[in-house]
Specification:
Radius of gyration: 19 Å
Order of helices and strands: HEEEHEEHHHH
Strand content: 15-25%
Helix content: 25-40%
């Protein structure tokens, strides 16, 4: 109910189509990540390790209504890079109003940022609540794919990450499965019903 009330208070022109995104970032790097894995009883597995201090980030967003995803590999996180990804979301449908749910990271623009496209409405999630962000569930299979391995370049690790992400941009049902029956999907559905009644 809180999310419905929040959306009703936003300045959303009634004649505009609507896109609703939930966004998150994931950091990856050449320092090896060691994770638990399955093995046969009595066998102690080993994992190669290297220490190379190079990092990258992948920004991802899932769209609630059409089951679409967008991803962008970035060299770092910053306000400018966050705005760049927001623009990528807007470019998917320039005529629509884009509602973007995301956390309150310091490198995310604030809702009143004058540099945001006019089609964007930012909705910050409560602090310290990753459980509210469905995109968090996407990064676990990414971590499984890239852990317990040595990667020589960021390009190589990005190719491996893309293997995990590819089914999500190919099949909308994978996106809806990721979002699930959650506070977000229920709230958006209720909001759309009320918006239709108002219009």
């Amino acid at each position: 109910q809180n999310v419905v009330n929040h959306l009703l208070q936003l300045d959303i022109p009634p004649d505009k189509p609507l896109r609703v995104w939930i966004q998150d970032e994931h950091r990856y790097g050449l320092i090896s990540t060691v994770r638990r894995c399955w093995t046969v009883t009595g066998h102690r597995p080993t994992a190669p390790v290297q220490m190379k201090y190079r990092w990258g980030y992948v920004s991802g967003a899932a769209e609630v209504l059409k089951g679409e995803v967008q991803f962008l590999y970035l060299p770092t996180v910053s306000l400018d890079h966050s705005r760049l990804f927001i623009q990528q979301l807007v470019d998917t449908d320039p005529e629509a109003i884009h509602l973007v749910f995301w956390d309150q990271a310091g490198f995310h623009p604030k809702p009143d940022d004058p540099q945001l496209p006019e089609q964007v409405r930012l909705i910050p999630l409560p602090p310290y609540s990753p459980e509210l962000n469905a995109m968090e569930n996407l990064w676990d299979p990414v971590k499984r794919r890239i852990s317990n391995s040595v990667w020589e370049t960021l390009d190589a690790i990005e190719s491996a990450i893309s293997e995990v992400l590819k089914p999500f941009w190919e099949f909308p049902e994978r996106v809806w499965s990721l979002l699930g029956d959650s506070w977000l999907t229920r709230g958006v559905k209720m909001f759309l019903g009320l918006r239709k009644a108002i219009i």
